[in-house]
Write a structure and sequence with these properties.
The chain is of the alpha/beta class and about 240 residues long. The protein contains six helices and 13 strands. The strands form four sheets. The protein has a four-stranded parallel beta sheet with strand order 9-2-1-13, covered by helices on one side. A three-stranded antiparallel beta sheet has the order 3-8-4. The longest helix is centred in the first third of the chain and has 20 residues. The C terminus is likely disordered.
């Protein structure tokens, strides 16, 4: 099976990594530089301390746990920072609301603890709370992801497993045959496929009648394509045709 992944952000990189681990032949095409779009602009804060209802909270908490599991697969993981998060209230009503939230989170099994303000110095020596604050809540499992670093780690792992990662190679058109997508056209030629995974928003020529919402992407052998992108293109390669 051969899969083309369009887009080299966090979604595309994750798809490429998982597919290569499943021994699927993968080619990832990125119009600009990898992790150069939304993935470069997000703060990527990992938290679920203020997410309700329970179902939405659990969705976020499960996502946080997945990052921890991915760290175990890809150690070391310089992209994951789980140093915790601190919260305090500024007045009596806020303190009551914070205590209520703490009780709810504990009931849901989410890591959260109330600490005296003196403990703040051990966690964040440079952080000074208002004199009126006597306690704070600490969420030890929260943190953030350095997304461009994570994308680079995922794509390197995918490339080491045989994936072709091609940057600066904009996909201009979907190739159709008998009502099914069979490949993509780029500035350099045509790439054949069996399944397509689209991990980037459509722009320019991609917004066309060649990409109907009802398009079927069922696995099918390709018999209509030509001029495949050379196999020797590897991680960091350019879309320019090699000599």
């Amino acid at each position: 099976m051969r899969v083309i992944v369009i887009g080299g952000g966090v979604i595309g990189a994750s798809v490429a990594y998982r597919l290569t681990r499943a021994r699927v032949e993968v080619m990832l095409l990125e119009a600009g530089r990898v992790a150069g779009g939304t993935s470069a602009a997000t703060f990527a804060w990992l938290n679920s301390n203020d997410k309700t209802p329970l179902e939405y909270h659990q969705l976020n908490a499960d996502g946080m746990a997945e990052y921890s599991r991915l760290r175990q697969e890809l150690e070391p993981a310089p992209w994951l920072h789980t140093d915790g998060n601190i919260e305090w209230a500024g007045d009596a009503s806020g303190e009551a609301a914070l205590r209520g939230k703490l009780a709810r989170l504990r009931g849901w099994g989410y890591p959260a603890e109330s600490l005296p303000i003196a403990a703040l110095r051990d966690l964040e020596p440079e952080l000074v709370a208002p004199e009126s604050v006597t306690e704070f809540v600490f969420y030890p499992s929260e943190g953030y992801v350095d997304v461009p670093v994570m994308v680079g780690v995922l794509l390197k792992a995918a490339a080491d497993a045989g994936a072709q990662i091609v940057a600066r190679c904009r996909v201009t058109e979907m190739i159709w045959d008998r009502g099914r997508v069979r490949g993509v056209a780029t500035a350099n030629g045509i790439a054949s496929m069996r399944i397509l995974s689209r991990a980037a928003p459509a722009r320019g020529p991609m917004r066309s009648r060649r990409w109907p919402a009802s398009a079927s992407l069922s696995p099918q052998p390709s018999d209509c394509l030509r001029s495949p992108i050379p196999r020797r293109w590897r991680f960091g390669a350019s879309c320019t045709r090699p000599p």
